[in-house]
Amino acid sequence: MACLHHAIAQSLDTAYAHHIQRLMVTGNFALLAGCDPEAVDAWYLGIYIDAFEWVEMPNTRGMSQFADGGVIASKPYAGAASYIGKQSDYCKACAYDPRRRHGADGGKPACPLNSLYWDFLLRHEARFARNPRMAMPYKAWAKMAPAEREATLAQAARYLERLDTL
């Protein structure tokens, strides 16, 4: 994934990443993949030169990982490839197709963020479905054809089995 590759490489090289890279690239991926929020906290605190616990914890624990019980944010700060594409130019040079939820088109497989986003929403449906700010994605999911939903979740399961290769 071009977005993760760039954000992580830059973080390792310079000990710095901007807001979009921290929250919507590495943090979003960690959230969608179901990473342990404490491990994400530790990584952010250990990797970034400007990471001080009093700043990083609300951003990481509250916004990025939505692991503070909703104190900082009223909904998870999660997004699919379209958000990354709007906020950056990473998708242009990526090996994954940001428009697809599953499968491959012309040899370019679907962006993992898309299927992982829907998988995340369904894993946490009991928690988020009644949140008015989450109504739109759940309505969009309900309108999808059953075969599309099934293929999307199957794609997410395949990606979750091999996170280290994405």
Summarize the structure.
With 166 residues, the chain is mainly alpha-helical.
Task: Describe the protein's architecture and organization.
It is a single chain. α2 (19-33) crosses α4. With 166 residues, the chain is mostly helical. It has 9 helices and 2 strands. The protein is globular and about 45 Å long. Helices cover 60% and strands 2% of the residues. A two-stranded antiparallel ribbon has the order 1-2.
Describe the largest sheet. 2 strands, antiparallel
Helix/strand/pairing category: mainly alpha
| Order of helix and strand elements from N to C terminus | HHHHHEEHHHH
Shape category: globular
Please supply descriptive tags for the structure shown above.
166 residues, mainly alpha, two-stranded antiparallel ribbon, 9 helices, 2 strands
